[in-house]
Amino acid sequence: KRTDDTFKKELEKISANCELQKKKIQEHFEQVREKLDKEEQQLKEKVDKMENIQKQPLLTEKKRLEEELKSVERRVQFYIDFQSRRNDAEIITSRKLLELRLKVPRAEQISLKPPEDQILYKPNTDMLTSSLGSLAVSNTGITVTELPVESLPTT
């Protein structure tokens, strides 16, 4: 009976130890996932900031061009209105103003120079090729103190 109890206790120890190790593994991987999630979020935020930095010059140039276009549209509308009135004195005055403006050419040059450096993500693949943990077996041994003894029947 003592031998049976010893084996039972050792089997329970093995089960308890395995459950403990499974819990440790689970906790470790939860920490790894948490770290990965945090790093992923930080990298995405950094990309967003870099994107804004690269877009800003283009957005500024776009706004400037839109304002210039509005100015040209106002001038065009002025000349359309002017032609519809057909007042000779206004036509002569406006024609002189138009000639002066045309003598000073307005060369708008759009410099949509893309950023010299592109944003690139370079993953660290070392983690993918290595294990995040390992298992080992520790030999503690079982000592059985009660040996089975055969006895001869007594008559």
Task: Give a written overview of the molecule.
With 155 residues, the protein is an all-alpha fold. The chain contains 3 helices and no strands.
Give descriptors for this structure.
155 residues; mainly alpha
Helix-strand blueprint:
Blueprint: H1 2-85, H2 88-103, H3 126-129
Question: Could you write a compact summary of the structure shown?
Answer:
The chain is built from 3 helices and no strands. With 155 residues, it is mainly α.
Biggest sheet overview:
none
- Could you state the order of secondary-structure elements as H and E? HHH
Unreliable parts: none
Amount of beta strand? under 5%
Q: What do the pLDDT scores average to?
A: 78
Number of helices: 3
- Indicate the radius of gyration in whole angstroms: 42 Å
Which range best describes the helical content: under 10%, 10-25%, 25-40%, 40-55%, 55-70% or over 70%? Answer: 55-70%
- The multimeric state of the shown protein is single chain
**Shape label:** rod-shaped
Structural class: mainly alpha
Count of beta strands: 0
Distance from N terminus to C terminus (CA atoms, Å) equals 25 Å
